[in-house]
């Protein structure tokens, strides 16, 4: 909290650190009401810096108790300390700095630094939390070898953990004990971690390819012991996969994971001691959905993969965040695709990107994958840095091929092991290993905004030549009025009556018998380019952007029959799904047009037929069928409409509900038959063979919810008989949404009574209610904030209730009287001082005021009210001020 306007940090101002800290020894004395941190730092001047003058160490919320330079207290005039750190005049070239600070983890509600969560001490240091633990050069390019001593009460805190290997353990006086941890790998302070608590653990082993025997432990509260197996299995899969796909082995004798209830993000890759939000590590059939199991697997893998992409090779500064996050998200996406369904994973990722990331790129907080300035770095753990960053890495993979990409990543790890580097270094390794120039490609890192591709085609019947003309353009974003063309891999195929056509570009010799010449990656790099395919027997339907080969918007004037062709016949799962979605968007357009004209909408028979075909028993993959049957989400539709000039949220909602009901009516019998064909498995398992049919059945149930008793009867039976959370929640949603008030309240209360002791299930219960389409949705959420199950101090609960309401219950969040905005603004205000990171993150839906023309006044009014509050945290200040600009 500061009074003066928080200042921007700029990439252009980067200077190497004045000093380095090769060695760090920390000694923690943990007590409930305070903690003493003794730090002994070996500092040496950095030969790469020519800066002179006082040395500043970062420190926030620390009460300095002792300060020694080379064992002596410095003269008072030679040092000073303020709210942001400690300054030492004319430091020696090399010296030992000892500090003792007192901190109060119990009062730490921001969950950054060292804090207490349900009686357990834990840390979160990324990005700049270490400065809340000790005075330090708290920046990722200062890497140090740590030795950590922890003293605590033995009974209350039997488990004391930090990074690396445990080297000693002994009893102290007064019922306390001491444990020492040494981490041989130099690491930046953001990877430091400490945990102290009364925890149980599940244990396993892994032998690396090189023969290292690694002890794997997952620490949880005793009551959750049975929920760690899935994470353990996922961890072992991830360790094996990284050896096989990237040649990366684990490098310590232990790998620990700790689950904590109060956590701002999903999880954290601290060296050898990953700390996880309980929601991202605990899993069992009764408390975790199918999607939840997959999420645990993906996040466990993500954090594990960081051991190389993030820890062994780390970031020079926080502008390079995507260096580790984009790369690691790409790695975990490929892991999930290899272990599960590649098509589905791609569909999910494309959906996330096209709804949320495109919206971010089109909004007031748009920034490049490598931002060039920030006020609060915590605001930059965004979809752009993570997901778009991963797409940039995927494009490299597409352009270089699997082998070339692997050669590049091998070179990157070899060249930079133990270093703190930049996105440029990553690209240089990729380019050098492939003897190519990626100079233009690098624009993806510096240019914000979603590129738009406009495709036109021409057919010359006489010569059999088919020409695609592609224009690219990236819209202006804040601070970036003009954009340069980007290197864009456009994967495609051409469909003829009998299937995929062989592709020969003008000037090439046709490859006669070569098998796989039906798929092509065109590399775009000019504002406009044409490609002519020759020797075609008929005018093809272009299957464009196969595999979602680039994070772009693509427009081509497909006719509906062409979409239907792609939907059934293209080889690529993403194209098939996307064609179906486009057909649905067109049908929704019909409904909106009819409504606007005051006429009765009619269901597009082509769409009804396509959906019926997906429900046919002959459809091979039920999981893909379910994804294809799902209507585009409201956020997707709002994003599309906003891009076209402005979204009418009520009209979108109305059209979508109309179409759901129309399909429910037209397909009632097939839907019911499909539900019957996919009864619950005898015993639940979160495996593909079950997840697909389950998801198809529950998708059908969602449509049948519009059919009165037909849906209710099925849902009641399913709720009564289900042995897993996926089926229970799907049924509960139908009863709560489509049942009468008595049915709704009885079902919701019954569910709460049964599951109130399982925090993660209660979060689903909160989230389900937050997203119900009921006239009193706002009031329900407000009332739930007073429910004993809610806790403003727990980020998971805030996200489940308030975050879900504002992000996913659009018509009610945007209620005409502004009550939804008031609700959100009130929570942000309450959290501003208490947990600024969460407060700022919650604000996202309110920053999108430009997309909703009829609500601009009300949304801006709430933002302005927040902007005028005294003592805004830098986090909230940055989001509010940038979105009002
Ligand atoms: N590095 C973590 C990850 O794997 C995220 C930590 C974010 N922490 C924060 N305070 N913003 O994605
Ligand atoms: Zn990460």
From TrEMBL:
One Pfam family cited in the UniProt record for this chain: DUF3458_C
Gene Ontology terms for molecular function: alanyl aminopeptidase activity; metallopeptidase activity; zinc ion binding
Cofactor(s) this protein requires: Zn(2+)
InterPro entries: Aminopeptidase_N-like_N (IPR045357), Aminopeptidase_N-like_N_sf (IPR042097), PepN_Ig-like_sf (IPR038438), Peptidase_M1 (IPR001930), Peptidase_M1_dom (IPR014782), Peptidase_M1_pepN (IPR012779), Peptidase_M1_pepN_C (IPR024601), Peptidase_M1_pepN_C_sf (IPR037144)
Catalysed reactions listed for this entry: Release of an N-terminal amino acid, Xaa-|-Yaa- from a peptide, amide or arylamide. Xaa is preferably Ala, but may be most amino acids including Pro (slow action). When a terminal hydrophobic residue is followed by a prolyl residue, the two may be released as an intact Xaa-Pro dipeptide
Gene3D superfamilies associated with the record: 2.60.40.1840, 3.30.2010.30, Neutral Protease Domain 2 (1.10.390.10), Peptidase M1, alanyl aminopeptidase, C-terminal domain (1.25.50.10), tricorn interacting facor f3 domain (2.60.40.1730)
Location of the Aminopeptidase N-like N-terminal domain: 118-191
GO biological process: proteolysis
Domain Peptidase M1 membrane alanine aminopeptidase: 231-444
Domain Peptidase M1 alanyl aminopeptidase Ig-like fold: 449-556
Residues in Peptidase M1 alanyl aminopeptidase C-terminal domain copies: 561-885
Keywords: Aminopeptidase, Hydrolase, Metal-binding, Metalloprotease, Protease, Zinc
Keyword Transmembrane attributed: no
Domain of life: Bacteria
Name this protein carries in UniProt: Aminopeptidase N
